[in-house]
Amino acid sequence: MGVAAASAALSLGLSSAAFACNISEFSAEATCDGSKGVITVTDNDATGTPATITVFLENNGADAKQVGEAQTVKGTKAGAQIKFSEDWAPDATYRVHVKVDSGKTQIDTDISPSLTTPSTACKADESSSPTPSATPSPSESTPAESGSPTPSASESSSTAPAATPSNAPSPAVGESNLAETGANSNTGLIAGVAGALVVVGGGAVWFGMRRRGAHSGS
Questions:
Q1: Angstrom distance (rounded) from CA 34 to CA 209
Q2: What tens digit of pLDDT does each residue of 20-57 get?
Q3: Any idea which fold 20-116 has?
Q4: Cβ-contact 71, 83 below 8 angstroms
């Protein structure tokens, strides 16, 4: 009976140790939430023992800063997660510390190995950028093409009107030259009339002298 009791106690102890919370059930990963960096810690402790998680940025093996505030997580078999917002740089190193203080379960150590971030930083979400509209804006609209520029009102008013063609026949080349020199077709008629007037005037003078002589003789 003593041997049986010892065996049962050993089995119970091993069983309790198997179900106890341990550091191997914790893991950390650097991920992206859109354009923001996030450090995610997962606790797969099926017993749900509370654990306090603290994250530190490392620089040459020393703590450069603490990331946010310490957070408490209760693990599940499927895995409970907590997130720390951190704009991490590529290939950076973070130390994730786990502390459990629950009766016989005591953990005060870091997740090993330390967390190393990916070599590529987080990028902005391309789907959130506005899609350019296919319809051009009024300033980008193409002006209507015109075959010839439309003259302005001042240009149209200042332009002299075209000369209206005359219905009178144009003078011949010879006649236009005569008109310029004063020798046209009416010159002979004028000369004839002038000659007739000279003859009539001479006759009137002669007739007047004869009558004056006749009166003086009587």
A1: 141
A2: 789 999 999 999 998 999 999 999 999 999 999 999 99
A3: Immunoglobulin-like (2.60.40)
A4: no
